[in-house]
Amino acid sequence: MAARMAERDLAVARIPSSALGPSLPLVPDDHRFRLEFRDWLAENTPRSLPAVTEAEDFAFRVKWQKALHEGGWAGPAWPVRYGGRGSGALEQFMYYEELALAQAPRVTNESGILLLGPTLMVYGTEEQKRRFLPGILSGDDIWCQGFSEPEAGSDLASLRTSARETPEGWVINGQKIWTTWAAYSKWCFVLCRTESAPRHKGLSMLTVDMDQPGIQVRPIKQMSGKADFCEVFFDEALTPHDLIVGGRGQGWQVAMTMLQFERADQGYTDHAPLLVTLHLLREALGAEGAALLPRETARLRFADLWRRCQQLRRYNFRNAVNAERGRQIGVAASTVNVFWSQLVKDLAEFKAFVYPDAAVIDDTPLSESLLYSRASSIYSGTDEIQLNIIADRILGLPR
Amino acid sequence: MTAYEASSETTLSVQQLDMRTLARDVVRKLALSLAGLANEDPVVAAIRGRESLEELGWTGLLVDEADGGLGLGATERCIVAEEIGRGLLPVPFLSTSVACDVLRLLCRPDLARPRLGRIAEAQERVGVVAGARLLAPALADTGVRAAQAQDGSWSLDGLASLVPEVTGCTTLLVLATAEDSGTGVFEVTAPSPGLTVSPVRTIDLRRDFADVTFSFVAAERLDAEGIDTAALRRAEYLAELTLAAEAVGGALACLEQTITHVTTRHQFGSPIGSFQAIKHRLARAWVSIESSRELVLAAAAAIDDRTAFQEELAISARIAATSALRLAAEEAIQFHGGMGFTWELGVHRYFRRSFVSDQILSTAGGRADRLASTLGV
Fold first, then answer.
1. Are B328 and B350 in contact (CB under 8 A)?
2. CB–CB of A147/A191 below 8 Å?
3. pTM, whole model, 2 decimals?
4. Looking at residue A48, what is its pLDDT?
5. Whether the Cβ atoms of residue A109 and residue A136 lie closer than 8 Å to each other
6. How far from the centroid of its chain's Cα atoms is residue B277's Cα?
7. Which residues does residue A117 pair with via DSSP β-bridges, in sequence order?
8. Is A349 considered catalytic here?
9. CB contact under 8 A, A325 and B10
């Protein structure tokens, strides 16, 4: 019990920058961008996390999203004309580090802000941009991503959900799965089969209002006990003609552009929360309750994780520098992903090591994070797919 | 250029990339002439290797420009070490680097600077003797005792075993323990009465080792009667970083050779590199190597830019790179099948290097412990 209390109590003050490691060139600790955001976060970061129901938790995160938006800090990568800051990769690198150091709640509407928004800026019509972009950024319209299907996971191009054009609009039938936050989403962007052409040639991207009888959402209880993901069933669901993104048969191209945005984001943001967690665990190790832990094991495991987090941070930094210079991150994101996924699991286990009792109690943040960490090597591309990508596209091994 | 060649270009300057190209070219040529020697006799190879280093003018790479060297930083040091490690070149770059660090960081400037100049000019062949672990236990017990006579002169007595890269040296910088004034740096001329340098053949045939015994050997003290702990630690972690960079180079060589093999070797009608059992393991080896290489560069950048965490990053880099080399060497042997186990193919040399290097300067356990201590846990 004491350990659990301690963990919650720590989640208040800003973590010192040194928790991340050295000050890096191009993105130093005293960079103007950091200082500005740091000041804003000091004033605006909600200080207590209401650990209640999932719905309340989601509402809390939406509220946080709106606060970021009002402060001008939502979607830093978005161009200024769409309400963003026009930040390049290096500013984004700093943005996510500062968010983590402030122990801010996780941002929400990632599917909208990180995926659909930037994609609409490339492929959307003027009307689509005018209609959707403001609501995405403000958090008024929560979006979800309808890609994976029961029979189309890693092999996305084999998906079967179909849409046919009728005088009333597109009529959609099929099923999506692993759709994050679908239960709370107002809109979904759906990759579906509209043409008779095989595999990726026959796909289109449709945006669909979730609030209609033709759509049913069923949350999937995960092994962690929570239900972030859902199944989404389309039974004669309808969406207007003009809500297609990028034109008929262009769905694969649109989806690949979208995944590049996703990879770019993952390419330089994922080390900071890990280092902050590690910092908190280190403080916990110094606390009274930790006296019973095997000291030597604790310090060696801490050092090992710190070292690996530094490897990840440096790699992310390099990717951010590359992106800032207009180079594609592309396959480098796969290396990050493989390195990161094991680190997430090992960090969760170290957390359980530091809080041995609390970690086994059902329905605590600790036990949930331990269980949830098992997803790190599955979502956003399994380790096996990432290793294939590295082997084929970096090492040039024969297919 | 392969995709992975381009990977670390982002954070290096044009001059640094040129340096890499030059170093790679030089190493490739030298490797051809030195490799055969090393198979026969590591001592002969070491002597030829030292001459090669002098002919290239590379003994002065790390000596300040004011003292006649090129004054290169930690990043350049790592670039050169990586290429030397890639070619498993039997040249004493490690000991020359450490000698420069010991002189610069631990010795009186008025005594150090002329010696650094002579290293740069290749007038002296300098090695460092600090027990089997090079520097690490120096503060506690170096294994060599220094005694001062009535007239103020010093003499050394004791044994340092498994000392790397001292074959053919004309001068030895010895970390020795004086009864009253603690650990110091003592200079010994080789040969000298009472000094014995006995080559030891380790399983790493590309690096020379020797047991060095001192029986009341006349010595000159170069430090100001007491070594600053922080300076000694710095000399140590610079050496750790040099070994880390060397390991990364070796790991890349293993990976490249293995990729070539699995791409051309066919079984069951396909190149074996198309099988996922092999692809995935090589991809994991790549992740290990690439993330280690980045950490080496991060540590070097921290040292060059004088930011915080220099020691932590350097030790981390060594830990990461050591395991990357081990993994890459093991996979290289495995994926070459029966050929991988032959002497002829030669990938065993990287395994040998990885195993022996893991034990010099520091041990795996010692490094892990040191990192934790430096991080304050």
1. yes
2. yes
3. 0.92
4. 63
5. yes
6. 34
7. none
8. no
9. yes
